[in-house]
Automatic annotation (TrEMBL):
One of its GO terms (molecular function) is methyltransferase activity. It holds the Pfam family Methyltransf_12. The keyword Calcium does not apply. Keywords: Methyltransferase, Transferase. The lineage of its organism: Bacteria, Bacillati, Actinomycetota, Actinomycetes, Propionibacteriales. The keyword Methyltransferase applies. This is Class I SAM-dependent methyltransferase. Residues 38-136 form the Methyltransferase type domain. It comes from the Bacteria. GO terms for biological process: methylation.
Length: 202
C-alpha cells in the first residue's frame, strides 16, 4: 500500500486543511504553550502544519515514508520562516497501533485509522492520549463503504463506533454516504463517519 501513497498525495497537492480540524480547534480554543496535538496518520502534512502554525506542539505520525517526508518538509518550512520553534514539531514514521503518544489536548485522524494494522489498538492509543477535556477528531469508514473487506482496510458499523466512543462526550457524529471518485479518479461509494468527541474533564 505504501507505493500508492505518493500518487495520492500528489493529487491532493495544495489543498486546504480539512474542515474537521477547524471545528476541533473551535472546541479546544487556542492552545497554551505546552498543549500537545497529535495528527495520527498525517498523510501529506497539511493538518500537522496548520496545527503547528496555530501554536500547538505537534506530533505527526504516519506509516508512509513519503507522507512523513512531506510532513517534515512542511514543518521544516515553518521553522525556517521563524513561525515555529524546532523542538515543538516532530514527524515520525510508525504504525498507528504501536506509537507512543504524548498526553494531548487534541488527537486528529482524518481517513487514516481504517488503514491501521490494528484498528482497536490504534483507537485505544488515541483515546488513551487524551488529557481530561481533550478532543478526539476522527473520520473513519463505515461498513457500507466500497473498501469494506479490502486487504488492509478496517471499516465499522455505527453500533461498533458508538461502542468505541463509550465514555466520551460525543459532540458530533455525522454519517454520510455518497458516490464520488477518489482523489485518483476511481469511482467509489463512500460511507464515512465524522466524529468530534470530548474526554470528560473529570
Amino acid at each position: 500500500m505504501d507505493d500508492a501513497w505518493p500518487a495520492y498525495y500528489d493529487a491532493l497537492a495544495g489543498r486546504e486543511p480539512r474542515p474537521l480540524l477547524a471545528r476541533a480547534m473551535t472546541v479546544t480554543g487556542p492552545p497554551s504553550a505546552d498543549d500537545h496535538a497529535v495528527d495520527l496518520g498525517c498523510g501529506d502534512g497539511t493538518e500537522a502544519a496548520a496545527l503547528a502554525a496555530a501554536g500547538w506542539r505537534v506530533l505527526a505520525v504516519d506509516g508512509s515514508a513519503d507522507g512523513v517526508r512531506r510532513t517534515r518538509a512542511l514543518l521544516e518550512a515553518l521553522v525556517a520562516e521563524g513561525r515555529v520553534e524546532p523542538h515543538r514539531v516532530e514527524a515520525r514514521r510508525a504504525e498507528l497501533s504501536a506509537v507512543d503518544l504524548p498526553a494531548s489536548r487534541l488527537v486528529l485522524s482524518c481517513f487514516a485509522l481504517p488503514f491501521a494494522d490494528d484498528l482497536a489498538a490504534a483507537w485505544a492509543g488515541a483515546r488513551g492520549a487524551l488529557v481530561p477535556g481533550g478532543v478526539l477528531a476522527v473520520t473513519i469508514f463505515g461498513d457500507r463503504d466500497d473498501w469494506t473487506g479490502e486487504p488492509g482496510v478496517t471499516t465499522v458499523t455505527r453500533a461498533q463506533l458508538e461502542e468505541m466512543l463509550d465514555g466520551l462526550e460525543v459532540l458530533e457524529l455525522d454519517e454520510a454516504e455518497e458516490d464520488r471518485p477518489t482523489a485518483l479518479g476511481v469511482a467509489k461509494h463512500w460511507h464515512t463517519y465524522e466524529v468530534l468527541a470530548l474526554r470528560p474533564p473529570r
